[in-house]
Amino acid sequence: MASQREDHAGRKAASAPFPFARMERKRYALDRLDLQLRWGRYGIRVLRCHLASFGPGQVISAHKHSEYEFHFIPRGKGSVTIGGVYYELREGLFYLTGPDVVHEQRSDECDPMYELCLHCEIVPLDEAPAEGWGDSLELREARDCVQLLETMPSVPAWDRYHAMGCFLEAYRAWEEQAVGFYTTMKQTIVQILLRAARVHASPEACGNIPERDMNDHRFRLAAQFIEDNEAGPITLEEVAERVQVSPRQLQRIFRSEGGTTFSDWVEHVRLQRIADELLRSQRPIEAIALDHGYATPNYLYPVFKRKFGMTPAAYRRLHGVRQPAGGDSPDEALSSG
Fold first, then answer.
1. Buried-exposed string 299-336: b where 16+ CB fall within 10 A, e elsewhere
2. Which residues are in the HTH araC/xylS-type domain (predicted)?
């Protein structure tokens, strides 16, 4: 009776949907890829990345590697003996055998075991990548992950962070050969390492993304909005709404971060754009003024002279730009008045 129940259980498991059935088509396809990638200050060389199946009662005799080998059990049962200690294996568990860890695997007689295997070499690199655009965070996270892998126990644990799904994602990337194949493969390999290490990480080991100085951040957002929209009407209330603060608070931010008022900053941006265009084109000054937020061109002349110490026409002459015909008269009339 017991043998009949075991036989029924084996047939039931074999007929159940298998999420990794797709990988059975070419189980060792990824092993043929020469995958080498950099993560932080480490080089990762993938030696094997495949779906393996064991026959009923099959034994892989005691052995060890000089690299890291991740073993995930997506189906079936079995056991592993690590350093002389016996552990049962079942679907959903994984374990890591690090360098020189002796292990022996055995598949169940009635419910043979499948294994997703990632076997990789992790090599410290002397040359450090340039830090910027988040590189310092990646350097830290890679270091923390590798330190966890070096110290985590060789004890089966539940795949709580679903690292197994990354194997299927890598296999699909190989099948499709779409744009970004290498980047996808790098991300899946790194995710397997991270999700495995995370199972044994303490809450204190979690890194945090540095928090922004919100005044500085809002000032930069507001200043960029002004740069992008200086040609049209811009109000303090509109920009405050864009950066999600009150108008009064935004005015304080401009004083503390920019050392000036909001209106003076808008005027500064517009005058810089006008001065640049005066030197790059021979368009009439009145047209340039209209294109940069001065609804009445005559408003431009006094503010321009206050900032640059001369009229727009004199600014052009100083830099050797030829004036368009009839383009000086309003400017010169105001400057002489």
1. ebbeebbeebeebbbbbbeeeeeeeeeebbebbeeebe
2. 220-318
Strand partners, 180: none
Strand 68-75, strand 157-158: pairing: unpaired
pLDDT of the residue at 227: 92
CA 251 to chain centroid, in Å, comes to 34
Are residues 151 and 36 part of one domain? Answer: yes
Torsion angle of the four alpha carbons 52, 199, 137, 257, in this order, in degrees rounded to the nearest 10: 140
**CA–CA separation, 138 vs 211, rounded Å?**
16
**Residue 122 and residue 83 in one domain:** yes
Sheet holding 77-82, edge to edge: 59-63, 103-107, 77-82, 85-90
User: What distance in Å separates the CA atoms of residue 187 and residue 181, rounded to the nearest whole number?
Assistant: 10
Bridge partners, residue 59, by sequence = 106
- Window from 10-14, 193-197, 294-298 with minimum mean pLDDT: 10-14
Verdict on whether the full-model pTM lies above 0.85: no
Residue range(s) defining the domain that contains residue 305: 214-336
Our count of domains for the chain comes to 2
